Amino acid sequence: MPRSIVQGVISHTMKIWPLFPAAIYLLGFLIIVTVYLLGMSFTVVDGGAVSASLAPAARLLALPEFRQALVNTVMFVVVGTPLELVVGLWLALMMYQSFRFRGMMRSMLIIPLAIPALVTATLLFILFDYPGGHINHLLMGRYWFFPAVVDAPVNWRGSMAFSLGISLLGKVWRDMPISMLILLAGLNAIDPELFDAAKTMGAGLRKRLRHVILPLILPSVSAVVLLRSIEMWKEFIFPFVLAGQHDLLGTLIESLYNNWGNSHEAAAVALVLVVCIIVSALVLFRVLEGLRRLLVYA
Amino acid sequence: MSNHRIRYRRLTLYCGIAAAFVLVAAPLYLLVKYSISDPDSINTGGAPIPLWPYSPTLRTFAYLFSDSEFYGVVLNSLCIALATVMLSLSLGVPASYVLGRYRLPGRKIFTLGLISIRLFPDISSVIPVTEFFIRLGAQNTYWGIILAHTLLALPYVIFIGISAFESIPNDLEEQATVMGASRAQAFVRILLPLAGPGLVAAAIYAFLLSWDEFIFAYFLLGLGRISTLTLYLNQKMSFAPPQNILATISVCLSIPVVLFAVLLQKYMTAGITSGSVK
Questions:
Q1: Which site among B5, B127, B254 would you substitute to test the A interface, given the most A Cβ atoms closer than 10 Å to its Cβ?
Q2: Among A10, A257, B222, B242, which has the minimal tally of Cβ within 10 Å of its Cβ?
């Protein structure tokens, strides 16, 4: 090997060696996580001997709890993602306009993100208590400012729909600043001259929204939809605290691992979760790309 | 546009802002209200729960701060978070220096590879990490949880660090080397002070990430002898204690996070929006 190449490699290595410890650490863990996840999902341990097997996957498919958790998680994503987008859009459109104390209001709206998820979940745990709790008292018309909506207290955490519903509520409340900030950045990046030009050329509010604002903020909308849908798939803390026995995939992993002692099935669900996220992100990406083309070129 | 319509729009905007204010402020108010509630304001015997405690008190805080177990978990959380900051900075700052300063071929792909561990959901990666740590004997140990939290924080530290180092003009480093400084001297005397604010933000981010982390702590420490503040809150919740105790622990857990988040809003906003909008 020519000496110059060896010298080049040495000088390059000397230059980039500070990168090595972090790279080894992160890539090492990446390999460990991937290998263990795949290994545990496709092996069984029988009397100390490990052998390749599809048994964890087969047992999982036969498990009603798994099917229910998958359906629950899909519902969580399908309802939660548009909800986060709508709430984020509402807040961003308000914060885009100028009004007194806008800076203060913006700081205020970021606070939910700073509250740890476990704390928000604990607060909902307290508020939706049964049979007492503020929400039950409110809905039963115990306060002068709110009419009675129900006759008897509702057992929120006892019902699947309600317990997952309040988990979703907590998740959307805590994460709405992220959607708002991304959409606000998208709105702020639009050149105001474009509005003026469209207005001068006679476009009404609806036309400006359809042909100017929507195509231009679509990249931020796509970012919100993609990122938030991934977060919805991953959700663990809110249903863990609030939904008890009504599992999402995330909480099913925990139950299988800690309560049932089935680490291989837990790993298989963890793998299913990763696959779901990848597939859903790819599908959403294609759909959003199609939508962008439709809006820009139609 | 007619004056009437402008006024109508303004009114709608202010109603919307008021609604958003209530949406954020009401839960926070209720959390604080519960933490200063006296027992009669919680167990009302059928009467509506008051919107302001009958006799507000700080006794729950006093009770909590007189409990040595509480001090123990706060100290644990603090030590684990500080150790996470030290480890993730000592690994992350040199790495982000190289990635931020040198135009290496394939730099972007390599960076993506480094942070791709964060693409796994925590609840998915916690199983392999726990199994690996059990084999290593690192479950229920301080160093196990510190290594796990560093794994979570390091990609963010590198990501924030890269932009901090990238923003420093090349000329400064070159001038220092022309004047005889070694690469290490230029790094310590010129680059590090200039990248300081960004790196402080990264450090605080790592601290907070560890401080309120629950999933890895729950799997790696469980109900073992080491407990953190989040585990303590979760453990208390399972024993159905009075709600004012839960709220008080929650307030203690949130205060540092909210304080730092308000201080670091600029960096948080930049971190969230960077890369998402072209």
A1: B127
A2: A10
